[in-house]
Design goal:
Layout (H helix, E strand, L loop, with lengths): L1 E5 L9 H15 L3 E5 L6 H5 L3 E2 L3 E2 L16 E3 L5 H10 L4 E4 L8 H7 L3 E5 L11 E4 L16 E4 L8 H14 L9 E5 L9 H11 L3 E6 L14 E6 L5 H6 L3 E5 L3 H8 L3 E5 L5 H9 L4 E5 L6 H12 L2 H14 L4 H12 L6 H13 L3 E4 L5 H8 L2 H5 L9 H12 L4 E8 L2 E11 L2 E8 L9 H16 L4 E7 L3 H9 L3 E2 L9 E7 L1
Parallel strand pairs: 1-2, 1-6, 2-5, 6-7, 7-8, 8-9, 10-11, 10-13, 11-12, 13-14, 14-15, 19-20
Antiparallel strand pairs: 3-4, 16-17, 17-18, 18-19, 20-22, 21-22
Helix pairs in contact: 1-12, 3-4, 5-8, 6-10, 8-11
Protein backbone atom coordinates (compact mmCIF):
# COMPACT_ATOMS: atom_id res chain seq x y z
CA UNK A 1 0.00 0.00 0.00
CA UNK A 2 1.15 3.52 -0.83
CA UNK A 3 -0.12 5.68 2.02
CA UNK A 4 -0.26 9.50 1.94
CA UNK A 5 -0.34 11.37 5.26
CA UNK A 6 -1.87 14.87 5.17
CA UNK A 7 -1.22 17.20 8.11
CA UNK A 8 0.27 20.60 8.99
CA UNK A 9 2.34 21.77 11.94
CA UNK A 10 3.25 25.30 12.99
CA UNK A 11 2.95 28.07 15.58
CA UNK A 12 -0.81 28.46 15.13
CA UNK A 13 -1.79 24.82 14.59
CA UNK A 14 0.63 23.19 17.03
CA UNK A 15 2.44 19.95 16.26
CA UNK A 16 -0.03 17.36 17.56
CA UNK A 17 -1.34 16.43 14.09
CA UNK A 18 2.21 15.79 12.85
CA UNK A 19 3.07 13.74 15.95
CA UNK A 20 0.02 11.54 15.43
CA UNK A 21 0.84 11.11 11.74
CA UNK A 22 4.44 10.24 12.61
CA UNK A 23 3.15 7.32 14.68
CA UNK A 24 1.05 6.12 11.75
CA UNK A 25 4.10 6.43 9.48
CA UNK A 26 6.21 4.28 11.80
CA UNK A 27 3.54 1.57 11.92
CA UNK A 28 2.98 1.69 8.17
CA UNK A 29 6.67 1.32 7.36
CA UNK A 30 7.05 -1.55 9.83
CA UNK A 31 4.05 -3.18 8.16
CA UNK A 32 5.70 -3.13 4.74
CA UNK A 33 3.90 -0.12 3.24
CA UNK A 34 5.25 2.97 1.47
CA UNK A 35 4.73 6.37 3.10
CA UNK A 36 4.26 9.85 1.56
CA UNK A 37 3.58 13.16 3.28
CA UNK A 38 1.71 16.27 2.21
CA UNK A 39 1.83 19.34 4.41
CA UNK A 40 3.70 22.24 5.96
CA UNK A 41 6.14 20.51 8.27
CA UNK A 42 8.99 22.91 8.97
CA UNK A 43 10.82 23.02 12.30
CA UNK A 44 10.19 19.39 13.24
CA UNK A 45 13.76 18.07 13.25
CA UNK A 46 13.31 17.09 16.91
CA UNK A 47 10.34 14.90 15.93
CA UNK A 48 12.00 13.19 12.96
CA UNK A 49 15.21 12.57 14.97
CA UNK A 50 13.33 10.54 17.58
CA UNK A 51 11.40 8.25 15.23
CA UNK A 52 11.85 4.55 14.78
CA UNK A 53 12.95 3.98 11.20
CA UNK A 54 13.21 1.09 8.82
CA UNK A 55 15.96 0.71 6.24
CA UNK A 56 17.38 -2.68 5.28
CA UNK A 57 16.85 -3.57 8.91
CA UNK A 58 14.94 -1.97 11.77
CA UNK A 59 16.75 0.21 14.23
CA UNK A 60 15.97 2.77 16.91
CA UNK A 61 17.91 6.01 16.45
CA UNK A 62 18.83 7.66 19.73
CA UNK A 63 19.57 11.36 20.27
CA UNK A 64 23.13 12.11 19.27
CA UNK A 65 23.75 8.78 17.52
CA UNK A 66 26.63 8.82 15.07
CA UNK A 67 26.27 8.78 11.29
CA UNK A 68 22.54 9.57 11.35
CA UNK A 69 21.06 10.98 8.13
CA UNK A 70 19.80 14.57 8.09
CA UNK A 71 16.49 14.71 9.98
CA UNK A 72 13.36 14.55 7.87
CA UNK A 73 10.02 12.77 7.79
CA UNK A 74 10.17 9.03 7.12
CA UNK A 75 8.99 8.69 3.54
CA UNK A 76 8.57 11.10 0.64
CA UNK A 77 7.54 14.72 1.30
CA UNK A 78 5.12 16.18 -1.28
CA UNK A 79 3.61 19.70 -1.56
CA UNK A 80 0.62 20.64 0.61
CA UNK A 81 -2.79 19.79 -0.84
CA UNK A 82 -5.40 22.17 0.60
CA UNK A 83 -8.57 20.90 -1.08
CA UNK A 84 -10.08 17.75 -2.50
CA UNK A 85 -9.03 18.35 -6.11
CA UNK A 86 -5.39 19.01 -5.17
CA UNK A 87 -5.37 15.92 -2.98
CA UNK A 88 -6.76 13.78 -5.80
CA UNK A 89 -4.14 15.18 -8.17
CA UNK A 90 -1.33 14.19 -5.79
CA UNK A 91 -2.79 10.71 -5.41
CA UNK A 92 -2.99 10.17 -9.16
CA UNK A 93 0.53 11.49 -9.75
CA UNK A 94 2.09 9.26 -7.10
CA UNK A 95 -0.22 6.23 -7.41
CA UNK A 96 -1.49 6.57 -3.83
CA UNK A 97 -3.77 3.81 -2.51
CA UNK A 98 -4.97 5.48 0.71
CA UNK A 99 -4.88 8.90 2.37
CA UNK A 100 -4.76 9.51 6.11
CA UNK A 101 -5.94 13.05 6.93
CA UNK A 102 -5.24 14.60 10.34
CA UNK A 103 -6.35 18.16 9.58
CA UNK A 104 -9.47 20.02 10.73
CA UNK A 105 -9.80 22.50 7.82
CA UNK A 106 -9.82 20.47 4.60
CA UNK A 107 -13.61 20.25 4.34
CA UNK A 108 -16.14 17.42 4.26
CA UNK A 109 -15.98 16.59 0.54
CA UNK A 110 -12.77 14.56 0.56
CA UNK A 111 -14.24 11.06 0.58
CA UNK A 112 -16.42 11.42 -2.52
CA UNK A 113 -13.54 12.84 -4.55
CA UNK A 114 -11.04 10.22 -3.38
CA UNK A 115 -13.42 7.28 -3.83
CA UNK A 116 -14.02 8.42 -7.41
CA UNK A 117 -10.25 8.24 -7.88
CA UNK A 118 -10.04 4.76 -6.32
CA UNK A 119 -8.35 5.98 -3.14
CA UNK A 120 -9.42 5.04 0.41
CA UNK A 121 -9.74 7.82 3.01
CA UNK A 122 -8.88 7.58 6.69
CA UNK A 123 -9.75 10.72 8.64
CA UNK A 124 -9.10 11.79 12.24
CA UNK A 125 -11.62 13.73 14.33
CA UNK A 126 -11.67 14.92 17.92
CA UNK A 127 -15.29 14.49 18.91
CA UNK A 128 -17.06 16.92 16.49
CA UNK A 129 -13.94 18.88 15.54
CA UNK A 130 -12.63 17.89 12.10
CA UNK A 131 -15.55 15.53 11.47
CA UNK A 132 -16.02 14.32 7.90
CA UNK A 133 -17.03 11.04 6.21
CA UNK A 134 -14.29 8.50 5.57
CA UNK A 135 -13.72 4.85 4.75
CA UNK A 136 -12.04 4.73 8.17
CA UNK A 137 -12.78 7.33 10.86
CA UNK A 138 -10.50 7.64 13.91
CA UNK A 139 -11.45 9.44 17.13
CA UNK A 140 -8.85 8.56 19.79
CA UNK A 141 -10.54 10.38 22.67
CA UNK A 142 -11.63 8.75 25.91
CA UNK A 143 -15.41 8.50 25.84
CA UNK A 144 -15.66 8.97 22.06
CA UNK A 145 -17.48 5.66 21.61
CA UNK A 146 -20.22 6.78 23.99
CA UNK A 147 -20.93 9.96 22.00
CA UNK A 148 -23.58 9.59 19.32
CA UNK A 149 -22.14 10.18 15.87
CA UNK A 150 -24.49 10.90 12.93
CA UNK A 151 -24.50 8.17 10.29
CA UNK A 152 -22.65 9.74 7.37
CA UNK A 153 -21.91 6.49 5.56
CA UNK A 154 -18.49 5.92 7.16
CA UNK A 155 -18.20 2.10 7.35
CA UNK A 156 -15.34 1.74 9.88
CA UNK A 157 -15.24 3.74 13.12
CA UNK A 158 -12.16 3.44 15.35
CA UNK A 159 -13.21 5.30 18.50
CA UNK A 160 -11.54 5.52 21.90
CA UNK A 161 -7.95 5.70 23.20
CA UNK A 162 -7.20 2.13 22.10
CA UNK A 163 -6.91 3.79 18.68
CA UNK A 164 -4.64 6.65 19.77
CA UNK A 165 -1.68 6.61 17.34
CA UNK A 166 1.49 6.61 19.46
CA UNK A 167 5.12 6.48 18.39
CA UNK A 168 7.41 3.58 19.25
CA UNK A 169 9.26 5.95 21.59
CA UNK A 170 6.13 6.07 23.75
CA UNK A 171 5.95 2.29 24.00
CA UNK A 172 9.63 2.15 24.84
CA UNK A 173 9.05 4.71 27.57
CA UNK A 174 6.15 2.64 28.92
CA UNK A 175 8.52 -0.33 29.22
CA UNK A 176 11.26 1.85 30.76
CA UNK A 177 8.89 3.18 33.42
CA UNK A 178 7.70 -0.33 34.24
CA UNK A 179 11.31 -1.41 34.79
CA UNK A 180 11.94 1.65 36.93
CA UNK A 181 8.90 0.91 39.08
CA UNK A 182 10.36 -2.52 39.87
CA UNK A 183 13.64 -1.05 41.11
CA UNK A 184 14.58 1.25 43.97
CA UNK A 185 12.64 4.53 44.00
CA UNK A 186 14.55 7.70 43.23
CA UNK A 187 15.55 9.80 46.21
CA UNK A 188 15.26 13.56 46.46
CA UNK A 189 12.51 16.03 45.58
CA UNK A 190 9.88 15.20 42.95
CA UNK A 191 10.93 15.61 39.32
CA UNK A 192 8.46 17.71 37.34
CA UNK A 193 8.25 18.13 33.56
CA UNK A 194 6.29 21.07 32.13
CA UNK A 195 5.38 20.79 28.44
CA UNK A 196 2.70 22.87 26.71
CA UNK A 197 2.95 21.22 23.31
CA UNK A 198 5.50 21.66 20.55
CA UNK A 199 4.76 25.38 20.05
CA UNK A 200 2.87 26.55 23.18
CA UNK A 201 0.47 28.28 20.81
CA UNK A 202 -1.66 29.60 23.70
CA UNK A 203 1.32 31.09 25.57
CA UNK A 204 0.65 29.06 28.70
CA UNK A 205 4.19 28.37 29.91
CA UNK A 206 4.60 31.54 32.04
CA UNK A 207 1.24 30.92 33.74
CA UNK A 208 2.01 27.28 34.47
CA UNK A 209 5.50 28.09 35.76
CA UNK A 210 3.95 30.67 38.10
CA UNK A 211 1.58 28.01 39.45
CA UNK A 212 4.38 25.50 40.05
CA UNK A 213 6.47 28.15 41.81
CA UNK A 214 3.49 29.28 43.91
CA UNK A 215 3.00 25.69 45.14
CA UNK A 216 6.04 26.28 47.36
CA UNK A 217 7.20 22.66 47.29
CA UNK A 218 10.80 21.48 46.73
CA UNK A 219 10.98 20.05 43.21
CA UNK A 220 13.30 19.70 40.23
CA UNK A 221 11.36 21.30 37.37
CA UNK A 222 12.29 20.99 33.68
CA UNK A 223 10.36 23.36 31.41
CA UNK A 224 10.29 22.45 27.69
CA UNK A 225 10.61 25.78 25.85
CA UNK A 226 9.74 25.64 22.12
CA UNK A 227 12.17 27.11 19.62
CA UNK A 228 11.74 30.85 19.24
CA UNK A 229 10.12 31.33 22.62
CA UNK A 230 11.56 32.53 25.92
CA UNK A 231 10.24 32.00 29.43
CA UNK A 232 11.49 33.74 32.56
CA UNK A 233 12.03 31.11 35.23
CA UNK A 234 12.09 31.79 38.99
CA UNK A 235 15.54 31.71 40.54
CA UNK A 236 14.41 31.59 44.17
CA UNK A 237 12.02 29.47 46.22
CA UNK A 238 12.14 25.74 47.03
CA UNK A 239 11.60 24.56 43.43
CA UNK A 240 14.58 24.64 41.04
CA UNK A 241 13.68 25.41 37.42
CA UNK A 242 15.60 24.58 34.24
CA UNK A 243 14.69 25.41 30.64
CA UNK A 244 15.23 22.66 28.07
CA UNK A 245 14.69 22.71 24.32
CA UNK A 246 12.40 20.41 22.32
CA UNK A 247 13.44 16.82 23.01
CA UNK A 248 13.79 14.12 20.32
CA UNK A 249 12.73 11.51 22.88
CA UNK A 250 10.26 13.40 25.04
CA UNK A 251 8.53 10.16 26.13
CA UNK A 252 11.81 8.92 27.69
CA UNK A 253 11.94 12.12 29.75
CA UNK A 254 8.30 11.65 30.70
CA UNK A 255 9.11 8.17 31.97
CA UNK A 256 11.57 9.60 34.51
CA UNK A 257 9.19 12.28 35.83
CA UNK A 258 7.18 12.13 39.05
CA UNK A 259 4.66 14.59 37.61
CA UNK A 260 4.07 16.06 34.16
CA UNK A 261 2.14 19.31 33.69
CA UNK A 262 0.85 19.28 30.12
CA UNK A 263 -1.59 20.84 27.72
CA UNK A 264 -4.58 18.56 27.13
CA UNK A 265 -3.69 17.68 23.52
CA UNK A 266 -1.98 14.73 21.87
CA UNK A 267 0.53 14.49 24.73
CA UNK A 268 -2.24 13.23 27.05
CA UNK A 269 -2.41 9.86 25.31
CA UNK A 270 1.37 9.53 25.38
CA UNK A 271 1.37 10.24 29.12
CA UNK A 272 -1.41 7.74 29.70
CA UNK A 273 0.46 5.02 27.82
CA UNK A 274 3.71 5.68 29.69
CA UNK A 275 1.80 5.74 32.97
CA UNK A 276 2.87 9.13 34.31
CA UNK A 277 0.94 11.24 36.84
CA UNK A 278 -0.26 14.34 35.04
CA UNK A 279 -1.89 17.69 35.67
CA UNK A 280 -3.62 19.03 32.55
CA UNK A 281 -4.34 22.49 31.19
CA UNK A 282 -7.15 23.05 28.69
CA UNK A 283 -5.18 24.98 26.08
CA UNK A 284 -7.82 25.27 23.33
CA UNK A 285 -11.58 24.95 22.91
CA UNK A 286 -11.27 21.71 20.96
CA UNK A 287 -9.52 20.14 23.98
CA UNK A 288 -12.47 20.80 26.33
CA UNK A 289 -14.29 17.49 25.94
CA UNK A 290 -11.12 15.37 26.06
CA UNK A 291 -9.89 17.29 29.10
CA UNK A 292 -13.17 16.77 30.92
CA UNK A 293 -13.38 13.03 30.28
CA UNK A 294 -9.77 12.29 31.25
CA UNK A 295 -10.04 14.26 34.49
CA UNK A 296 -13.45 12.73 35.28
CA UNK A 297 -11.99 9.24 34.76
CA UNK A 298 -9.36 9.90 37.43
CA UNK A 299 -6.51 9.58 34.93
CA UNK A 300 -5.33 13.17 35.43
CA UNK A 301 -5.71 16.17 37.69
CA UNK A 302 -7.21 19.29 36.12
CA UNK A 303 -5.81 22.81 36.30
CA UNK A 304 -8.53 24.39 34.15
CA UNK A 305 -8.17 26.62 31.13
CA UNK A 306 -6.30 29.79 30.29
CA UNK A 307 -8.64 31.98 32.35
CA UNK A 308 -8.28 29.69 35.37
CA UNK A 309 -4.50 30.24 35.33
CA UNK A 310 -4.71 34.02 35.44
CA UNK A 311 -4.38 33.73 39.22
CA UNK A 312 -1.69 31.19 40.20
CA UNK A 313 -3.11 30.03 43.55
CA UNK A 314 -5.88 27.66 42.32
CA UNK A 315 -3.42 25.75 40.13
CA UNK A 316 -0.81 25.96 42.89
CA UNK A 317 -3.20 24.27 45.32
CA UNK A 318 -3.71 21.31 42.97
CA UNK A 319 0.02 21.02 42.28
CA UNK A 320 0.89 21.34 45.98
CA UNK A 321 -1.38 18.39 46.75
CA UNK A 322 0.16 16.27 43.98
CA UNK A 323 3.76 17.10 44.83
CA UNK A 324 3.32 16.25 48.52
CA UNK A 325 1.22 13.09 48.07
CA UNK A 326 3.02 10.24 46.25
CA UNK A 327 0.02 7.95 46.74
CA UNK A 328 -2.21 10.39 44.86
CA UNK A 329 0.30 10.51 42.02
CA UNK A 330 0.50 6.72 41.92
CA UNK A 331 -3.29 6.44 41.72
CA UNK A 332 -3.41 8.82 38.75
CA UNK A 333 -0.62 6.94 36.97
CA UNK A 334 -2.23 3.53 37.51
CA UNK A 335 -5.54 4.69 36.06
CA UNK A 336 -3.86 6.48 33.16
CA UNK A 337 -1.77 3.45 32.18
CA UNK A 338 -4.93 1.34 31.92
CA UNK A 339 -6.49 3.76 29.43
CA UNK A 340 -4.01 3.41 26.53
CA UNK A 341 -2.04 0.31 25.51
CA UNK A 342 0.01 1.92 22.72
CA UNK A 343 -1.20 -0.30 19.84
CA UNK A 344 -3.41 2.34 18.21
CA UNK A 345 -1.16 3.13 15.23
CA UNK A 346 -1.02 -0.54 14.26
CA UNK A 347 -4.81 -0.84 14.46
CA UNK A 348 -5.22 2.23 12.25
CA UNK A 349 -2.75 1.01 9.62
CA UNK A 350 -4.37 -2.43 9.47
CA UNK A 351 -7.83 -0.89 9.04
CA UNK A 352 -6.62 1.47 6.30
CA UNK A 353 -4.83 -1.36 4.49
CA UNK A 354 -8.03 -3.42 4.55
CA UNK A 355 -10.02 -0.46 3.19
CA UNK A 356 -7.47 -0.14 0.36
CA UNK A 357 -7.57 -3.86 -0.40
CA UNK A 358 -4.05 -4.46 0.90
CA UNK A 359 -2.55 -6.44 3.78
CA UNK A 360 -0.01 -5.53 6.47
CA UNK A 361 3.05 -7.64 7.23
CA UNK A 362 2.03 -8.11 10.86
CA UNK A 363 4.50 -10.96 11.46
CA UNK A 364 7.55 -8.81 10.66
CA UNK A 365 6.11 -5.83 12.53
CA UNK A 366 5.50 -7.90 15.65
CA UNK A 367 9.00 -9.37 15.51
CA UNK A 368 10.64 -5.94 15.30
CA UNK A 369 8.46 -4.45 18.03
CA UNK A 370 9.02 -7.36 20.38
CA UNK A 371 12.79 -7.24 19.80
CA UNK A 372 12.89 -3.49 20.34
CA UNK A 373 10.81 -3.48 23.51
CA UNK A 374 12.68 -6.43 24.99
CA UNK A 375 15.91 -4.43 24.66
CA UNK A 376 14.65 -1.45 26.69
CA UNK A 377 16.79 -0.64 29.73
CA UNK A 378 16.28 1.72 32.66
CA UNK A 379 19.06 3.56 34.52
CA UNK A 380 18.65 4.69 38.12
CA UNK A 381 21.04 6.30 40.60
CA UNK A 382 22.94 3.80 42.73
CA UNK A 383 22.33 3.61 46.48
CA UNK A 384 24.21 2.14 49.45
CA UNK A 385 21.99 -0.93 49.13
CA UNK A 386 23.81 -1.68 45.85
CA UNK A 387 27.19 -2.07 47.59
CA UNK A 388 27.38 -5.85 47.41
CA UNK A 389 26.13 -5.98 43.81
CA UNK A 390 28.59 -3.34 42.57
CA UNK A 391 31.52 -4.91 44.48
CA UNK A 392 30.89 -8.26 42.82
CA UNK A 393 30.95 -6.66 39.39
CA UNK A 394 34.05 -4.58 40.21
CA UNK A 395 36.06 -7.57 41.47
CA UNK A 396 35.18 -9.82 38.54
CA UNK A 397 38.51 -10.87 36.93
CA UNK A 398 37.47 -9.78 33.42
CA UNK A 399 36.43 -6.36 34.70
CA UNK A 400 39.70 -5.87 36.58
CA UNK A 401 41.72 -6.99 33.59
CA UNK A 402 40.81 -3.86 31.61
CA UNK A 403 40.58 -1.36 34.50
CA UNK A 404 43.19 1.22 35.30
CA UNK A 405 43.36 -0.31 38.78
CA UNK A 406 43.50 -4.10 38.55
CA UNK A 407 43.66 -4.86 42.28
CA UNK A 408 40.76 -6.56 44.03
CA UNK A 409 38.82 -4.27 46.41
CA UNK A 410 37.81 -5.32 49.94
CA UNK A 411 34.19 -4.72 51.11
CA UNK A 412 34.99 -1.98 53.66
CA UNK A 413 37.05 0.01 51.19
CA UNK A 414 34.37 -0.40 48.56
CA UNK A 415 31.59 0.74 50.87
CA UNK A 416 33.52 3.86 51.85
CA UNK A 417 34.18 4.58 48.17
CA UNK A 418 30.49 4.10 47.33
CA UNK A 419 29.30 6.38 50.14
CA UNK A 420 31.72 9.07 48.98
CA UNK A 421 30.68 8.65 45.35
CA UNK A 422 27.01 9.14 46.15
CA UNK A 423 27.79 12.46 47.84
CA UNK A 424 29.80 13.87 44.92
CA UNK A 425 28.26 16.38 42.51
CA UNK A 426 30.93 15.60 39.91
CA UNK A 427 30.08 11.88 39.74
CA UNK A 428 26.97 10.05 38.58
CA UNK A 429 26.84 6.34 39.44
CA UNK A 430 24.03 4.38 37.80
CA UNK A 431 22.61 0.87 38.01
CA UNK A 432 20.96 -0.23 34.75
CA UNK A 433 18.31 -2.95 34.56
CA UNK A 434 15.76 -4.62 32.31
CA UNK A 435 12.67 -6.57 33.32
CA UNK A 436 14.88 -9.57 34.17
CA UNK A 437 17.01 -7.58 36.63
CA UNK A 438 20.30 -5.61 36.70
CA UNK A 439 22.44 -5.73 33.56
CA UNK A 440 25.36 -3.53 34.63
CA UNK A 441 26.54 -0.16 35.80
CA UNK A 442 27.60 3.12 34.18
CA UNK A 443 29.68 5.74 36.00
CA UNK A 444 30.26 9.31 34.85
CA UNK A 445 33.07 11.46 36.27
CA UNK A 446 33.24 15.13 35.37
CA UNK A 447 36.67 16.09 34.05
CA UNK A 448 37.87 19.45 32.76
CA UNK A 449 36.96 18.58 29.15
CA UNK A 450 33.82 16.50 29.67
CA UNK A 451 32.27 13.59 31.52
CA UNK A 452 34.32 10.38 31.48
CA UNK A 453 32.39 7.13 31.25
CA UNK A 454 33.11 3.77 32.87
CA UNK A 455 30.86 0.87 31.92
CA UNK A 456 30.58 -2.65 33.36
CA UNK A 457 28.26 -5.36 32.06
CA UNK A 458 27.17 -7.76 34.80
CA UNK A 459 29.28 -10.93 34.36
CA UNK A 460 26.18 -13.14 34.26
CA UNK A 461 24.65 -10.98 31.47
CA UNK A 462 27.67 -10.89 29.15
CA UNK A 463 27.24 -12.18 25.60
CA UNK A 464 23.68 -10.86 25.33
CA UNK A 465 24.43 -7.81 23.21
CA UNK A 466 23.76 -5.49 26.13
CA UNK A 467 26.88 -3.30 26.04
CA UNK A 468 25.61 -0.67 23.58
CA UNK A 469 22.10 -0.45 25.12
CA UNK A 470 23.73 -0.20 28.56
CA UNK A 471 25.89 2.69 27.40
CA UNK A 472 22.90 4.38 25.72
CA UNK A 473 20.86 4.12 28.92
CA UNK A 474 23.70 5.76 30.81
CA UNK A 475 23.96 8.51 28.21
CA UNK A 476 20.23 9.21 28.38
CA UNK A 477 20.45 9.51 32.18
CA UNK A 478 23.39 11.93 31.93
CA UNK A 479 21.65 13.96 29.22
CA UNK A 480 18.60 14.30 31.46
CA UNK A 481 20.86 15.72 34.17
CA UNK A 482 23.15 17.95 32.11
CA UNK A 483 21.19 18.71 28.92
CA UNK A 484 22.06 18.22 25.26
CA UNK A 485 25.48 19.29 24.01
CA UNK A 486 27.32 17.62 26.90
CA UNK A 487 30.86 16.43 25.94
CA UNK A 488 31.61 12.86 27.02
CA UNK A 489 34.85 10.86 27.09
CA UNK A 490 35.79 7.19 27.01
CA UNK A 491 39.30 6.02 27.92
CA UNK A 492 40.08 2.63 26.34
CA UNK A 493 43.21 0.48 26.46
CA UNK A 494 44.84 -0.09 23.10
CA UNK A 495 44.55 -3.88 23.52
CA UNK A 496 40.87 -3.84 24.46
CA UNK A 497 39.39 -4.41 21.01
CA UNK A 498 35.88 -5.15 22.33
CA UNK A 499 35.60 -1.80 24.12
CA UNK A 500 37.04 0.01 21.12
CA UNK A 501 34.33 -1.52 18.91
CA UNK A 502 31.65 -0.66 21.47
CA UNK A 503 32.52 3.02 21.63
CA UNK A 504 33.04 3.27 17.87
CA UNK A 505 29.52 1.92 17.32
CA UNK A 506 28.23 4.47 19.84
CA UNK A 507 29.83 7.37 17.96
CA UNK A 508 32.96 7.99 20.04
CA UNK A 509 36.02 9.03 18.01
CA UNK A 510 39.71 9.06 18.94
CA UNK A 511 40.77 12.59 19.83
CA UNK A 512 44.16 12.12 18.15
CA UNK A 513 46.29 12.61 21.29
CA UNK A 514 47.59 9.07 21.14
CA UNK A 515 48.04 6.55 23.94
CA UNK A 516 49.17 7.57 27.43
CA UNK A 517 52.14 5.78 29.08
CA UNK A 518 49.82 2.96 30.22
CA UNK A 519 48.41 2.38 26.74
CA UNK A 520 45.03 4.12 27.14
CA UNK A 521 43.46 6.14 24.29
CA UNK A 522 40.89 8.92 24.77
CA UNK A 523 37.70 8.84 22.69
CA UNK A 524 35.14 11.65 22.58
CA UNK A 525 31.64 12.50 21.44
CA UNK A 526 28.90 15.04 22.14
CA UNK A 527 25.53 14.02 23.59
Amino acid sequence: MRLLLRCDAGPSTGVGHAVRCAAVAEAALLSGHEVFWSGRLDGLDWLWAGLFRVAWQAYTPLPGAAAEPAPGPPGVLLPPADNASDLVALCREHRIDAVHVDHYLLGTDLRAALVAAGVALCTVEDFTTGRRPGDVVVDPNLGAAEHRRPDDGSPVLLRGPEHAPLRMAVRRARRRRAIGAATAPAAGPPRVLVVMGGTDAAGLLPLVVAGVARAGVPAEVDVVVPAGRAVELPDDGPARFRAVGPLPDLPATMAEADLVVSAAGTTVWELCCVGVPMALVRAADNQAEGYRTVVAAGAAAGLGGVDDLSEPEPAAAVLRDLLTDPDRRDALAERARAVVDGEGANRIVDAVAAAAGAASDTEWRTHVEDTTLTGVLHARPATLDDAELLLGWRNDPETRRWSRSTDEIDPDTHRRWLAGSLDRVDRSLLVVADLDGPVGTVRWDRECSGWEVSITVAPERRGGGLAVPLLRAGEEALRTRTGTGTPVIAVVHADNAASARLFARAGYADDGTGADPDGFHTLRRML
